[in-house]
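User: Here's a chain of 329 residues. Predict its fold as tokens.
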Amino acid sequence: MKVKPVKNTKEFLDIIDGKSNNYYSKVSSFAYYPYTYRDNRDEYNENKAKVAELSENDIYDNGKYSNKFLDNIKIGDYAFVGLNAANHDQKNNKKYDISFQTMHESNNSKSKDFYIARMLRDAPDGGKASGSFMFDIISHTIATNLPMIGSVITKIKHKPDNEFQLPDEPFNLNNIEECNIEYGSLSYLIVSQNKKVTLKDKYDALKLLSKTNNTINVKNIDKDDNEFDNKVKSIIHNNENTLKQLKKQSIYELTDHIMTNDLPVFVYLMRLLRPKKLLCFGENTYKLVDALLDQTNLKCKLGIHAEKLIHYSNSSSDKEKSDRLNNSL
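Assistant: Prediction complete.
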């Protein structure tokens, strides 16, 4: 059965919002920020976490979608795309039993999600994209960060064309496999030649890795020790082969996960939504999305194009972020 584009938001919600915690509503959302204060900047700035919030009461009314929620979300010309869905401990955080919390982090002081609300507020044409669907191109992947993503994108670009020729049929969004590359991503960071990655960063990664690898011992290292640099370098040197193997494995596993899970999800969503532009947060998101649009031929077949936004957590000014968004609409 061919995938038909959805006619309205209710039809789309029926597809993505299921009862299982694994369902796609747990890794997606809408650019609806009901606590954005347009007329009172002081109040806005004092409630950064609140601004990002999309609570259960904002979504539901007596167990059904509220009219306010339905009136403020939309499917149409735009969709926002992030890189990797955040991992939340749902057992200890009831907030994430609720659907549509992606890019709406409101109980973490380190979260930068409120900047998305600012971008939409400050862009003169932000209303065009407000309420649009939001998702991460990679989901169900356990990793603090993805330092290997550049290598993964390169591997994907060199995949044969037939691997991108997916059948025009629905994909079971409740059947996305989980991929754990946490230790591989740590290893990638440790052996990185990037000058921005300090020895203290590598030491912190080694500490996490040592919890599951008995050959890595950092117990006798103190950051204030005069020999700190030499000791960290020695541990990295002595475990070089193990670290490189973990790094290599993480590239393979993430590439495979994207091709077997994220790619069919992406193609299915694009066939359902038919947006004109995918507004991508950050360089790596843009590169991966653009590559997938090219190689699946969705750019030509459905006229979908990727636009690169400044990532909302980037240190650029609010004006630069909102200007880039406005120019992309």
